[in-house]
Target: Cell growth regulator with RING finger domain protein 1
Amino acid sequence: MAAVFLVTLYEYSPLFYISVVSLCFVVTAAVVLGWFGFDVPAILRSSDETESILPTPEKQMVQVTNPFGLAMGYGTASVIDGISVRPFCLEPCILSCFWGCEVIAVQGALKSHQHGPRLSTPQHFQEAFHLRYHHSQSFHVSSDNNEEHYTQIPAEQGITDFGLLPRAHYPLVAVLTLAESEARDVYNIVASVTVIHVPDDKYSLSARILFQYLLTSQGNMFELKPLFMSADSRGVPGPPDTEQSTSPYQPTEEAHRLEQSSVLEEEDWSEGTGRDCVVCQNAAVNRVLLPCRHACVCDRCMSHFQHCPICRAFVLESFALTQEPVVEW
Ligand SMILES: [Zn+2]
Ligand SMILES: [Zn+2]
Model:
């Protein structure tokens, strides 16, 4: 129909035909530009750019000091011979070692900290565990020395192993709490809970820390994860590789499902060398995306992404690693 009209028109007057076609083009161009503004039409943009219309809310973060540290001691460890642990504390602390603590009791205690009264003293933990452990032992830990503390189940209890897998008891749960009540008001972190595997005849896996949690006075719980860095001096930026080992202790699922992910989940964040932004490769990484916690983009690129460039998780919030304006090239 339109074609027949155009052919007729062309035969009638080529000049008039060209004028009509040009006019149609100009009108169409005007409509398109009026519709989209003098910007690039939305269909020509990448999906990430179109989403940048919604700015990601800025999350206010505070830095907290962890007064607790606990490492495995040197020497051999076994359920029969006991184990040495080495606390590192900024304040005088109490180290409570709960041997053969029921997995369910530990989970229940951690949950009760989040929903009920906070666990900040050894007595709180004893009550929260409902005495569902074989033996407990306490040590005073001073802040100025890092001596090892040796703990063991008394031989008269006759406990030599914790049975076959899967197990219902953790061999050792080491709890660090602040000894002085004044210190509890100073630190946000009020307790550290370390679940330790100790080898026995039934399960000879070498002694190791299975999980480490920090409990805050606000009722949050953060899991400390092992930090792995690139063996090269300057590695490829990327998410930290945390060791994901399946636990022989049951039930495992719920134990890991934390309501709060960790502020202290370390990133490969080495001495401000300015790992390049994964997007523009031109500025220092300064944005941590939440909830995935990937630190991978600079402030400038942040506004172009609604999804994490590393894991594609939807970005709900973000926070800056440094508040000072990042030096622009
Ligand atoms: Zn960038
Ligand atoms: Zn991510």
User: Anything to note?
Assistant: Residues 289, 292, 294, 308, 310-311, 313 surround zinc ion (ligand 2) (CB under 6 Å). Confidence is low (pLDDT under 50) at residues 235-245, 251-272. The two ends are 60 Å apart (CA to CA).
